[in-house]
Design goal:
Helix content is about 45%, strand content about 10%. It is mainly alpha-helical. The protein has one domain. Helix 3 packs across helix 6 and helix 4 crosses helix 6.
């Protein structure tokens, strides 16, 4: 895909997310997608296809999860990280959503006490388009780690096994991805 097309697609995704968020805050308590449509998608995804295909285990996620996932990736990744390393951070967050040991939505995972510290130091922000692009790719099933048991990501070792490390040369620290 040409670089110009990629940026146009990123901008379009960004504008759609902003429109969805704005539509949800106009004083109406009605969901953007009706419960009947959501239930139909869960019961028979082929009857009412989602706008973007998602892996079966993530069928119940709302489009707003792309926004929250992008925020996690941007907050947790370094400025000099590769696309692959940024995707790993988002994949760990999605692994948490799928795990019975963590909350069931990306937003709840992002805001869980003691997790993702940057959310408690910054005002609400709209993520940069590149992070929305990473989140959309992950929500569409793309994976880098390909290990659903990797649910820990921190500047120290957690869990039972270190699966990968990401070195941040600007901050001179290591992020550990563990299961």
């Amino acid at each position: 895909m040409p670089k110009t097309m990629k940026w146009i697609l990123i901008l379009m995704i960004f504008l759609v997310i902003v429109a969805i968020i704005a539509a949800g805050t106009r004083g109406s308590n009605k969901p953007i997608v009706s419960e009947e449509v959501i239930e139909a998608r869960i019961m028979d995804p082929a009857a009412t296809p989602a706008p973007t295909p998602m892996p079966k285990s993530y069928e119940q996620m709302y489009d707003a999860d792309v926004f929250w996932l992008a925020r996690i990736i941007q907050a947790e990744s370094g400025d000099n990280w590769s696309d692959e390393d940024c995707m790993k951070i988002g994949e760990v967050a999605l692994n948490r959503v799928a795990s019975p040991d963590f909350p069931n939505t990306v937003k709840e995972v992002a805001l869980q006490d003691g997790q993702y510290e940057p959310f408690f130091h910054y005002e609400f922000w709209i993520p940069d388009p590149i992070y929305i692009w990473y989140a959309a790719r992950l929500m569409n099933g793309e994976r880098v780690l390909n290990d659903p048991d990797v649910v820990w990501q921190a500047l120290f070792v957690q869990g039972n096994e270190v699966v990968d490390v990401i070195y941040d040369k600007d901050l001179d620290n290591i992020t550990y991805l563990c299961k």
